[in-house]
Design goal:
With 374 residues, this protein is mainly alpha-helical. The protein has 3 domains: 8-53, no CATH class; 60-208, Ferritin, core subunit, four-helix bundle (Ferritin); 223-373, no CATH class. Helices cover 67% and strands 3% of the residues. It contains 12 helices and 4 strands; from the N terminus they run αββββααααααααααα. The protein has helices at residues 8-16, 65-90, 95-123, 152-175, 180-194, 196-207, 210-242, 244-254, 257-280, 293-310, 320-345, 350-373, and strands at residues 24-25, 35-36, 42-44, 51-53. The strands form 2 sheets. A two-stranded antiparallel sheet has the order 1-2. A two-stranded antiparallel sheet has the order 3-4. A hairpin with a 6-residue loop joins strand 3 and strand 4. The radius of gyration is 31 Å and the shape is elongated. The chain starts with 7 loop residues before the first helix and ends with a helix.
C-alpha cells in the first residue's frame, strides 16, 4: 500500500491519469516509475495534506520463481488457518465434520512445510510478503469463518472452491517455472490438490460414518428450529391470535372497514415491536444455542407483524360485509399455516396442533366479537 502526497491542484490530474480499468499510472513523486494498480481504486482526501491511496497488484505472469513460492506459502498458511477456524466453529454442533476439516488443515500444514523447505534451500531465510490480494486473478473470499453459527453446507462448498482455486494456481505456476525442483514440487502439489476432493471423500467416510452424518443432520435441523422456527412461530401465533380481538371488536363496533384497518395496523405494528424486543432480550443464546438474540428478535417481530397484518388487509375493501368475511377466511388460513408448522417442525400430531391453535384462536375471536357487539 503506497500513499504519495499530492497537492489539491495536482489531485485531479493524478485521478485523471488513473483510468477506470487502468493498468498503470505515473507520478513525479515516484520518479517516473510506472506501477500496476488494482481495478478497485479509492482516492481519499483528508486533512491539510491530501493523499492518493491506491493498492499495488502484480500480474501473475510478472511473478518471479521466488515470489511464486512465497505466494504458495502464503496461500497454504491462509488455507490452513481457514480450515482450523472451520473446525473450531463446527466442533460443538458438528464434531464429525470438524474432525474432517482438522484433517484437511493437517494436509495444508504439510504442504506449507514442503514449500518452506524448498524456499529456504533455493532463496534463503527471508520470505517476501506477497498475498492473494496482491496478485490479480484470485477470487475474493467471503469471511465465512468469522460468522457464528457456521452454516455447514456453505462451509463445505467454500472448502471445495478453495481447493479448486489452489489447484489451478499450482498448475499455472508449474507451467511457467524453469527450475526443475520447483516445478516438480508444484506439479506434486497440483496433483495432490486435484485428488484432494477424492481424499476428502475418503476422509469423510472415515470421519463421518452414516450414523454420525444422521446425527449431524438432526443437529442442523435442531439449530434451525431453535434459531428460526421457534421465534418465528411464536411471533406468528402471537400476531395472528392476539390481534383478532382488537381488529374484530373495532370492525363490529364501528361497522367501518377503514377504522378496523387502522386498529389492526396499529395492533400489528405494536405487537411486532414488542415481541421483537422481548425475544431479543430474553437470552443471548450463549447457553441455549438459540443463536444471535437480535436475529431471533427480528424474526419474531417480523412474523408477529405479518400475522397481525394478514387479517387486517382485507379491511381495505370498502364493502364492510365482504371485508369481514374475507378477514375471517384469512384467519382460518393463518391458523392452518400455524398448525402445519407445528406439525412439520415441532413434531406435534395434527389433531393436537389443530386443537391447540384453533382453541386459542376461537377464544380470542369470540372475545373480540363480544366486546365489539356490546
Amino acid at each position: 500500500m503506497l500513499a504519495p502526497t499530492a497537492s489539491y491542484g495536482s489531485l485531479a490530474k493524478i485521478a485523471a491519469e488513473v483510468p477506470t480499468g487502468g493498468e498503470s499510472f505515473r507520478h513525479e513523486s515516484l520518479l517516473g516509475q510506472s506501477l500496476p494498480v488494482c481495478r478497485r481504486k479509492t482516492i481519499i482526501v483528508c486533512g491539510p495534506h491530501p493523499h492518493l491511496i491506491y493498492c499495488v497488484m502484480k500480474k501473475f505472469e510478472e511473478l518471479t520463481e521466488r515470489e511464486v513460492l512465497a505466494l504458495a506459502i502464503s496461500l497454504e498458511e491462509e488455507d490452513e488457518r481457514v480450515y482450523a477456524d472451520f473446525a473450531e466453529g463446527l466442533r460443538q454442533d458438528y464434531p464429525g465434520t470438524a474432525a474432517m476439516f482438522e484433517g484437511m488443515r493437517e494436509e495444508e500444514s504439510g504442504h506449507r512445510r514442503r514449500l518452506l523447505e524448498l524456499f529456504q534451500k533455493k532463496f534463503g531465510e527471508h520470505i517476501p510478503l506477497i498475498r492473494r490480494q496482491d496478485v490479480r486473478g484470485f477470487v475474493e473470499r467471503p469471511a465465512l469463518w468469522l460468522v457464528r453459527p457456521l452454516r455447514i453446507e456453505a462451509v463445505r462448498k467454500e472448502a471445495s472452491t478453495m481447493e479448486v482455486e489452489t489447484r489451478r494456481f499450482y498448475e499455472k505456476a508449474a507451467v511457467r517455472t524453469q527450475d526443475v525442483s520447483i516445478r516438480q514440487l508444484l506439479d506434486d502439489l497440483a496433483n495432490e490438490e486435484r485428488s484432494h476432493e477424492t481424499r476428502a471423500q475418503e476422509l469423510d467416510k472415515q470421519k463421518l460414518p452414516d450414523s454420525v452424518k444422521a446425527d449431524e443432520e438432526v443437529a442442523q435441523r435442531r439449530l434451525f428450529v431453535l434459531q428460526i422456527v421457534q421465534p418465528g412461530l411464536a411471533g406468528l401465533m402471537d400476531g395472528s391470535v392476539s390481534t383478532l380481538a382488537p381488529v374484530f371488536a373495532a370492525a363490529l363496533a364501528t361497522q367501518k372497514s377503514w377504522d378496523a384497518f387502522l386498529v389492526g395496523s396499529a395492533a400489528s405494528a405494536g405487537a411486532g415491536i414488542s415481541m421483537g424486543f422481548a425475544e431479543a432480550l430474553s437470552d443471548d443464546g450463549s447457553l441455549t444455542g438459540r443463536g444471535h438474540p437480535w436475529v431471533r428478535g427480528l424474526v419474531c417481530g417480523a412474523m408477529t407483524a405479518l400475522g397481525g397484518i394478514g387479517h387486517t388487509l382485507p379491511f381495505l375493501i370498502r364493502d364492510f360485509r365482504v371485508a369481514l368475511w374475507a378477514a375471517g377466511a384469512v384467519v382460518v388460513a393463518e391458523l392452518a399455516v400455524i398448525t402445519w408448522i407445528r406439525r412439520r417442525y415441532m413434531d406435534t400430531p395434527w389433531v393436537t396442533a389443530a386443537l391447540q391453535v384453533g382453541l386459542g384462536g376461537v377464544l380470542v375471536f369470540i372475545t373480540g366479537v363480544l366486546i365489539g357487539s356490546s
